[in-house]
Write a structure and sequence with these properties.
The chain is an alpha/beta fold. 35% of the residues lie in helices and 27% in strands. A five-stranded mixed β-barrel has the order 5-8-7-6-9. Helix 5 links the parallel strand 7 and strand 8. The model has no long low-confidence stretch (mean pLDDT 97). The structure holds 1-O-phosphono-alpha-D-ribofuranose (R1P) and uracil.
Length: 235
């Protein structure tokens, strides 16, 4: 401590960590929803802030994009800083017609082609899944807010610019709700280290209708997701 990627002092990271892909979303969420947010990491521009939510210590730290990046931050937060509850707050692309931009998707499980954990799982098709207690509390928080929320299987992809449209078609046909790029490895790491994990996602674009959320509306839509994650963590 500090680690190669996090310069925070021991004790500056809370046991509850929210993980957006975008470090600027970490800054915005901390400044909007936490009391007394303090910058605790900015190595490589990957901001981490720690403050309190209703008196409970919380860190909001960027994960970067993709599972290899998420894996670096989640590993260091868990093994070096003692994080116990990790909730991804991300954007995703919807994969079902009944889902609209601005809706929230909560990932009960995450399908992949591969994850950074493939090296240890080898022939095992491990099923990365969310912590049920967090999932239940997040759904209750979303219902109480009146946020249109979908719960189910999501797709954690390795590429944003996919040269294989047939993969999306198979995911859609098997009821996958949305595509993002980090949740599966977060769930793998939480299982390995005895932590709680969940992915709460806001639909920013639609793979079938090609509708996309204008950037001007993204912050306000993402606010519901942050509040759902915070309420789930401390319910
Ligand atoms: O908005 P974030 O949390 O970064 O999540 C999604 O957006 C990025 C791709 O644009 C990937 O990280 C994907 O998972
Ligand atoms: O990974 C992502 C995130 C948002 N939208 C997508 O289509 N993919």
């Amino acid at each position: 401590m500090p680690t190669p990627h996090i310069s925070a002092a021991k004790g500056d990271i809370a046991e509850t960590v929210l993980l957006p892909g975008d470090p600027y979303r970490a800054k915005w969420a901390a400044e909007t929803f936490l009391d007394n947010p303090k910058l605790v990491n900015e190595v490589r521009g990957m901001f981490g802030f720690t403050g309190t939510y209703k008196g409970n210590p919380v860190t909001i730290h960027g994960s970067g994009m993709g599972m290899p990046s998420l894996s670096i931050y989640a590993n260091e937060l868990i093994t070096e800083y003692g994080a116990k509850t990790l909730i991804r707050i991300g954007s995703c692309g919807a994969m079902q017609k009944n889902i609209n931009v601005r809706d929230v998707i909560i990932g009960m499980s995450a399908t992949t082609l591969s994850t950074p954990s493939r090296g240890i799982f080898k022939e095992i098709n491990f099923a990365p899944c969310a912590d049920y207690g967090l999932l239940e509390k997040a759904v209750a928080a979303a219902r109480a807010k009146g946020t249109t929320t979908h719960v189910g299987n999501i797709y954690s992809a390795d590429v944003f610019y996919d040269e294989r449209p047939d993969l999306n078609e198979i995911m859609i046909r098997h009821g996958i709700l949305g595509v993002e790029m980090e949740a599966a490895e977060l769930y793998n790491l939480a299982a390995r280290h005895g932590c709680r994990a969940l992915a709460v996602l806001t639909v920013s674009d639609h793979l079938i209708t090609h509708e996309a959320l204008p950037s001007s509306e993204r912050e306000s839509s993402f606010g519901d997701m942050v509040e759902i994650a915070l309420q789930a963590a401390f319910a």
